[in-house]
Amino acid sequence: MATKRDHKVTGFVLLELIVALTLIGVGLMFLGQWYAQQQQLSTRQTWVYDTELLISALQTQWQQTHKVPSDLSQLSHPDGSSGFVEPWQQTWQVLPQAEHLQLQIAAPNHAEARWFASQLPGARAVQEQVFIEVLEPDYSQVANAERFLHRQPQPQQPELNEMQVDLQMNGHALTNVSQLQATSASVTMVQSDLVQTSDFSATHARIEHLEVDSLISPEGSLLQLKQQLDLLQALWNSCVAQGRCG
């Protein structure tokens, strides 16, 4: 027959198990929130990148036709996809001006509009609206323009998209890079708004905010842990109610 001491020991074991599962669950929630934040940053980076491509396509068509573009549906995405990714699932509006044109799009709020405008040259935020001035391209004053590196890929001239040289930066920083691909890199510190990786391993990670849609560990999913925690909580409450756990 179990003694009162045995009941107390059982109660303490259940309590320690509940605490351990709670800590594991909180850690998994933090990791999930971090993953969701990285997904949001990736989406924002795509907005900026596709907007730069859209501006480049507008200027190219303007130069070729000598007419102010008014229909964005006629522009082709460089990768052959159906269209450009538009921020906040809104639609760009084309506003022709005297010597240039403006692109206009509505953001959910002023803070979002200010952030997006800060990512693009020639952009400004007015309340919830973002305006981007697109000037008519003029390469007539540039001699041998093919010799220069282009910011956007040139599908018809792939040799312009590559650099067959080693860069010696002489201690200077490389800034404002939208995309960088490397086989190997050795750095002292990395500070970035967005990091995408297929495999992540770290000895120590400090995370302020973490969101996740679905998280599965070798021991089970977060949902299973929550169900087990609820069951243990119910057992503990029953034990306390019967006076066997203090």
Describe what this molecule looks like in 3D.
This protein has a domain at 11-140. By secondary structure, it is α+β, with helices and mostly antiparallel strands. A hairpin with a 2-residue loop joins strand 5 (216-217) and strand 6 (220-221). The protein has helices at 4-65, 110-118, 222-241; strands spanning 93-96, 100-106, 123-126, 129-135, 216-217, 220-221. The strands form two sheets. It has a four-stranded antiparallel beta sheet with strand order 1-2-4-3. 37% of the residues lie in helices and 11% in strands. It is built from three helices and six strands.
Task: Offer a quick outline of the entry.
This protein is an alpha+beta fold. The protein has three helices and six strands. The chain has a domain of 130 residues.
Sequence stretches where pLDDT stays below 50 over 5 or more residues = 139-145
Name the strands of the widest sheet in spatial order: 1-2-4-3
Q: What's the helix count?
A: 3
The separation of the N and C termini measures: 19 Å
Q: What does the radius of gyration come to?
A: 28 Å
> Could you tell me the number of beta strands?
6
N-to-C series of helices and strands: HEEHEEEEH
Largest sheet, strands/sense/barrel? 4 strands, antiparallel
Structural class: alpha+beta
Helical fraction: 25-40%
- Name the overall outline: elongated
Beta percentage is 5-15%
What would the average pLDDT be, to the nearest integer? Answer: 74
Protein name: Type II secretion system protein
Keywords: Membrane, Transmembrane, Transmembrane helix
Transmembrane segments: 12-36
InterPro entries: Pilin-like
